[in-house]
């Protein structure tokens, strides 16, 4: 299995550095989406850990879509991200909305926080599949486990890749968003690797420019991890009570995995 190289890390960082100024264009109403996602995630957290508020690490916070909403819901949130541009925007957008949000630039494989510092670790928006090898996924989950308290909650959201791995689509359907700063057209091209599991993504955004359009293209790579594969990695990392929450049932736009940090007092089942 190939190793993640410095160029792979730079590719992910460059992708989100470039996308950060336009990331809100993915949503027709970014603030409404923040509020909805926070409602769903907050219910998952409080339903498993009690009313709180809770200490939350969003270890792939991007521009703050989940972190800001959870902070405004009353949780004590820290956001970290590999992209310094995205992290800086998360801090600015949180401050503009009155959210108390601490932000750090960090690699999710090496979270720079004390052991047991958080009640919840969140990794949303299909961020984990940017890690392209088993050892790197293992390192990230070990880091998340280290900074969680005993019986703390892990929350991951990812694409549902089962059918995608079978059909290997060449593209994702185009999306049109009406935002406060104009209409945005977005689409993706997927270039599959020979292993049939990883793909290079080209993300196109057409944004208004004068009487025409500006075309912005960003590129990165994903590992199309299935639910079974991710469940295996999570359990092997020392988590128990793994549950999957489908969008139709939970209301989140991607499948959500929740799990608890195993403790010495609570053996794995």
From TrEMBL:
Top-rank taxon: Bacteria
Keywords attached to this entry: Methyltransferase, Transferase
GO BP terms in the entry: methylation
Domain Methyltransferase: 56-152
Keyword Repeat: no
CDD domains the record matches: AdoMet_MTases (cd02440)
GO molecular function, a single term: methyltransferase activity
Database matches in PANTHER family: 2-METHOXY-6-POLYPRENYL-1,4-BENZOQUINOL METHYLASE, MITOCHONDRIAL, METHYLTRANSFERASE
Descriptive protein name: SAM-dependent methyltransferase
Organism: Streptomyces pseudovenezuelae
């Amino acid at each position: 299995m190939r190793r993640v190289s410095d160029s792979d890390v730079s590719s992910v960082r460059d992708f989100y550095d470039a996308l950060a100024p336009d990331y809100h264009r993915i949503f027709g109403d970014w603030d409404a989406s923040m509020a909805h996602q926070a409602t769903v995630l907050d219910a998952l957290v409080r339903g498993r850990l009690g009313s709180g508020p809770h200490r939350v690490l969003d270890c792939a916070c991007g521009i703050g879509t989940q972190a800001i909403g959870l902070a405004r819901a009353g949780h004590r949130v820290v956001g970290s991200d590999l992209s310094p541009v995205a992290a800086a925007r998360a801090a600015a957008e949180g401050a503009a909305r009155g959210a108390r949000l601490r932000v750090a630039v960090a690699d999710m494989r090496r979270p720079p926080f004390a052991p047991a510092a958080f009640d919840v670790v969140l990794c949303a928006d299909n961020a984990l599949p940017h890690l392209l090898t088993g050892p790197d996924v293992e390192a990230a989950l070990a880091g998340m486990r280290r900074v969680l308290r005993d019986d703390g909650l892990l929350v991951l959201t990812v694409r549902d890749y089962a059918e995608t791995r079978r059909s290997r689509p060449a593209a994702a359907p185009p999306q049109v968003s009406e935002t406060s700063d104009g209409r945005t057209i977005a689409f993706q091209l997927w270039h599959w690797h020979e292993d049939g599991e990883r793909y290079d993504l080209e993300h196109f955004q057409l944004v208004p420019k004068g009487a025409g359009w500006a075309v912005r293209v960003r590129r990165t790579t994903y590992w199309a991890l299935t639910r079974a594969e991710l469940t295996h990695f999570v359990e092997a990392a020392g988590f128990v009570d793994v549950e999957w929450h489908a969008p139709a049932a939970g209301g989140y736009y991607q499948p959500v995995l929740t799990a608890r940090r195993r403790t010495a007092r609570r053996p794995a089942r």
